[in-house]
Every structure is written in structure tokens, then in C-alpha cells.
Write the C-alpha cells for this entry.
Amino acid sequence: MMKKRRSDSDVFGLSFLDIISCGFGAVVLLVLISDFAVNEEAMETKYDELSVQISKLANLKSDLMSISEGQKKKSSGVADTSEVNEMLAERLSSKETILENQLSELASMQVMLDSLVDDIATKKRASIRSTTAKRRVEEVGGIPVDSEYVVFIVDTSGSMKDIWNKVTRHIENIINIHPTVKGFQILNDNGEYLITAYKGKWITDTKKMRKNSIDLFKIWTAMSNSSPVEGIKEALKTYGKANQKLSIYVFGDDFSGGNFDQALNEINALNFNKITKSKIARIHAIEFSSPRSTNRFPILMRAVTEQNNGTFLSI
């Protein structure tokens, strides 16, 4: 901290003015008590002149007091400014350190660019809301995101585990395009629950539960036989309600089941409201390409999504 500098002394200081004022006062007193051979008119004139001078001195004293106070504030301000400058310099140094760290992090983030571009492309294809267009264009596709509830059916076979990080990223992408839902659930393709404590229930949609679910999903060790039909049937039987908007997302790379028509008929029978003659849930599918994948998953799921108001995406 810089020391405050003493202000330069002024020869016309306040003490000097006090002496002058007292001197003029004494002169006035002498005039009043002395017996000069002057007339009364001359005395009154002299008194008036002295009064004017004293008034001027009083005004001058007041002005000098104001100037003195201003100088003190100015001197204090200089010191305060120095303190502020030192503080700002420290903050600037801290900011520079933070900036260097951020530049280092930016260099690391550059490595993730390719995967991020892939994620963005998926979001663009999967971010069409139901209010965007009155009629859905089949050639364009798009996934409406106005659902109140969401169920994820994920193939947990060995071939999918080989690309599990990629699967996890797209799970996060899909759930993030739904800003808020009343509940969500995650099952594997055989109908096993990620969080068994929530079996038959909805996981409440909060930031904490989304994060916890994704963290558990990353280390999920359940194995399956690459047959999404069982998971879809479990989701429709347990969560398919006529009075709620439900979307089911099926993630997989293969279909190990036998008869395509039988699987399709079983799904369509469960996903049908006999009263309203309409579908209970939208069923979407996301195909992943892995070293062991075949064309059986897209054959089945293209038909399922087409007949259940859904969208098929291939990644």
C-alpha cells in the first residue's frame, strides 16, 4: 500500500486568516472606543468599510476551507486509487492464469471435435417438434419431442458394449432434446431395469436423477441377446397408458429373434387403444453400426417405427 503524501503547505493557511480577522476586529474595537476628532458621519463610513473587509475575509476563509477539504479528498483519492490499481493488478494476474488454463483445456477439447460433430448431426435429425409442421414428412423424418414420458430400450449385448461410450453419448443427446418430462425409464432389450428400485415406476425427471441415471448407465453390466421385442413389450404393458403421451426409444445393432411378422404383430397389438383406435406410444429406433451388427435390426425396426408413428435413425 502506498503511503499518503503530505499536501504542500499554503502560506495563506487558515491560521494566517484567523490572525488577520482578529487584527481587523481589534482595529474596529479601537475605532469604537477612541475619542478621535472626527464627525459621526466619517466614523460610520469607516465602520462600514471595515465591515465590508471583514465580510470579504470571512468569505475568503470559507472558500479556502472548501479548497482545503477538496485537497484532502484529492490526496486521499490518490492513495485510494493506488490501492485500487494494486488490487486490479492482482486480479489481472489471476485472470491471466485462468486464461492460460482455459487455453490448455481448449487444446484438449479440440481432440473431441469429431465426436461432437457426430452428436450435433444426430440432434439436428432428432430435434423436430410436433408443432414444427402439421404433417410429418416421411422422407425427412424427425422425432417429435412433446412426450410427457420417455422409455429407453437399450441392447446390452456384447457387440453394443464394444461401442458403449458412443451409445451413452446418444442416450444423453436424446434425453436432452426433451427439456422436461414428467418421468423417464431405462430398460435393456430383455426388459431388465437399469434401476431395479424403480421397476414399474417412473424415474422423476430432475437434473440430479438424469445425471445419476447416466452415471449408472455408463457402468451397466447387464447382458442381453439382442432381441428388442421383450423390452418393448415390457414398456408397453407397464407404462402404456391411454391418457399420457409416451415415447419409446429403442437402441440396438441386431435382432436375434426369429419371425419378423410375429414380433411386429405382438408390438402392434400392445400399442393400440381399442377405444380411440389410435396408438398409445410413439416408437422410435436408433441403429448403431458395430463390428458384429447385421441388417436384421433395421429390417424389423423400420417396420415398427413406420407403423407406430416413430422415426428410424441409423448412426
Remarks:
- The chain has a mean pLDDT of 75.
